[in-house]
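note to self: dont lose this again. the chain is below, predicted strucutre after it. 277 aa total, dont forget to put it in the shared folder this time
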Amino acid sequence: MSEPSNSEQYGPIGPKASEDEIPATRRLGGGLKLRSVLPNAITAAALCSGLTGIRFAIVGDWEKAVFAIILAGLLDGIDGRIARLLKAQSRFGAELDSLADSLSFGMAPALVLFLWSLQDLPRFGWLASLAFAICCALRLARFNAQIDVDHQPHKSAGFLTGVPAPLGAGLAFLPMYLWIASGEPIFREPLIIAAWVALMAFLMISNLATLSWTSIRPRRDLRLGAIAITGILFAALLTEPWWTLAALCVGYLLLMPYGWWSYSKVRRQRKAEGAVS
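---
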């Protein structure tokens, strides 16, 4: 009896990207396709950037620590798109991406925030850091477990389940953005930071429907305005990065109730269609 193929064992990763498809390019040793090197190299770069943020935090260079993790988030946002563009999705890439995300957006932010503020709150500060790192890992494990699941109500409607790991890391840094921008010591208060980090940890593993990029589709008459706003935000990030990052975080948090309401509306429509059929 022949052994089952990789696609039968694990299911496809991305469109037309099963592991046992006939390769269109030369493979490297170990079966890794040559066209898979670029997206996986970007994922490795994101991992190194996130972990380098810990190094900057150890020496007290907080701005570089945050920027390193933000850079990891930007790299994480493009590796998957490049993999789909090159048709280089693979089980290896999916596993590497999850491991990199867990370290860059779970462990690294937890340690940076602990070294920055939470170490002044013995026991509870460390517990808050642990909760954030663990919840990030749990979120990614849940995502991996659902890769091959056909019935995913949130995903099928264009929504995400909970706050994505990179966004969770960015939101966790909101008090640090405000502290760097204003210098106010209240934003470094360990009790406030611990409560905030615990809340972000909960949002990552929550079952809340949150907006995804695919669900944001501005009307035709608003698209020029969206382009202009994007340009203004980019300029603001160059001139006032910390206030702009804080504003983006607040904007995302304000949009979360809208995402929940939008998904509730879709769910009601589905129930009505099911009752009619």
